[in-house]
Amino acid sequence: MFEATELNAQHARTEKLYRILFGLMAVLLILPVITILTVLVVRGGPAISFEFLFSEPINGMTEGGIFPALVGTIWLVSVALVASVPIGVAAAIYLSEYAPKNWLTRAINLAIINLAGVPSIVHALFGVGAFVLFFNFGTSILAASLTLAIMTLPVVIVATRESLQAVPQAFREACWSMGATRWQTIRHVVLPNSVSGILTGVILEVSRTAGETAPIMFTGATLFLPFLPETVFDQTMALSLHLFTVSTQVPNVPEEVQYGTALVLIGLVLSMNAVSIGVRTYLRGKKKW
Amino acid sequence: MAHNAGALDRRDTAWYVDKAVEWLVFIGGISAIIFIVGIFVFIGKEGFGFILGRFDFAEFFFSPRWTPTSLTNATYGALALIVGTASVTGFAMLVSVPFSLGAAIYIAEFATGKRRETLKVLIEMLAAIPSVVWGFIGLSLMNPLIISVFNVPLGLNVLNAGIILGLMAAPIMTTIAEDALKAVPDGYREAAEALGATRWQVIRQVVLPAAKNGLVAAVLLGVGRGFGETMAVLMATGHSINIPSSIFDPVRALTATIATELGETAEGSEHYQALFALGILLFAVTFVINLTADLFVRGIKDK
Questions:
Q1: Do residues A128 and A35 both lie within one domain?
Q2: A195 CB within 8 Å of a chain B CB
Q3: A123 CB near a chain B CB, below 8 Å?
Q4: Which one is the CATH code of B80-302: 3.60.21.10, 3.30.70.2970, 3.40.50.1000, 1.10.3720.10?
Q5: Residue A5: per-residue pLDDT
Q6: How far apart are the CA of A121 and the nearest CA of chain B, in angstroms?
Q7: Cα dist from B202 to A52, B189, B191, B192, B209, whole Å
Q8: Cα distance from B172 to chain A (closest Cα, Å)?
Q9: What average pLDDT does this structure show over B101-105?
Q10: A23 vs B53, B119, B155, B227, CA distance in Å?
Q11: Any CB–CB contact under 8 A between A49 and chain B?
């Protein structure tokens, strides 16, 4: 009854053309990730060994392993989490459960956007001015971690706020009508229903924090230290800064060591990221409301 | 009656705990504002000393001579650094904007199901690669590649850093642009389709115009991301003070200048304060970019 006209065929061709064009653009964005990962695994893989992960760099960092840097990154990330998770979760609870629609809430949201958007080197300057000098923590794990904590605070706030808001309003109303206070409702109904969402945010923050370099360069991380940090007032090596060091600051570092360091760093960051995405996808499938 | 009023008064422990928590989370909430103001105050404290004292507007913005370590004649011309940052960010946007918006259109309008999810996850992975790893890639993969492909003596230049930066800024642009496209009500699409428009006609003449503000915001946030990037730009630009005449020239960025020089300056010195003044410039520009992007995003929500 209806036959495809020349015009229809032309439209179909146009559409197919654009579909392929845009699809290709998407693929071209993805291709570098895959290429980069492949090259890092191929060139860095042979360097990875028990000795590489658990021994100190020796001979001007041209041999040996990355153990102090690995331990330092764990220190930095842990202290940063201790500082930022409570503040971030509190901020998210305020924004999701208490905040009225007014100028203050608007200002808070703008501040969060800007905290996330300010260049990392500006956070570093702040860290130097505030934590290293003003609060007199010196160049230490504490100063570096607090700088990182403020920088990645938006990650925790945004993820937590989202998972709190995903809890249906009816849950809260049911609880209030039983005579519960606001906090009792949050504590016993809202938080238990969103705790895994908060967890994905925290894991994402770990991933972000572990990869940052600029904010820790002048606040607590050093190029080389022959011993491990013992308190938060010590300086430390860090994996991200170590990659910068072995690829730009020290001459004659074998390629294998450079690629190995890059592989460990990106492996750490991407596996954390993958866990976070995995948990999120799993939860989305499990949601009953 | 007094007895009844007492029964209604619920100031028990739970009530006090509730009030205390309300205050506590309020402090958490305003902490973001405190930190932003804190950043401004602490950077300003060091930087304004330079701006009010040694600072010379004409020299700072129009002289390419950044020689803060010169003993006899230290000059603070940031022009070459500003041009360096602008050229790398500009080239990155030139490469990245079409691809990011194209990918966003594909993900929002064409792709479905598993393929769509996979693309989104991979783009999220792209966003997760740390900046120092990008710098390393620029240094050890792109550098030799550019030298052999274009037959130039040095592969650390605007081209190298631009491509790296383009890839780094792509995820945020794609994600925000996709959100903007998704925010266009399906009723718009259905109405156009009912009039006989093809899929592409719907996208071009209905969806894209309706999502325009969000797309502008996406590009702005991409610019902000590129502008503030530090480690990758430091490692891939060649880091030499230069007004580039082609994409094969090395340059030096504002951010990278702070990153390399801060460690070598004495606290409170003129040079040290000048670096904080660069920080104020970076802070101000990104602040304006973020604010503008937010206004554009709010524009779509209010409609």
A1: no
A2: no
A3: yes
A4: 1.10.3720.10
A5: 81
A6: 6
A7: 56, 6, 9, 6, 10
A8: 11
A9: 94
A10: 55, 10, 30, 28
A11: no
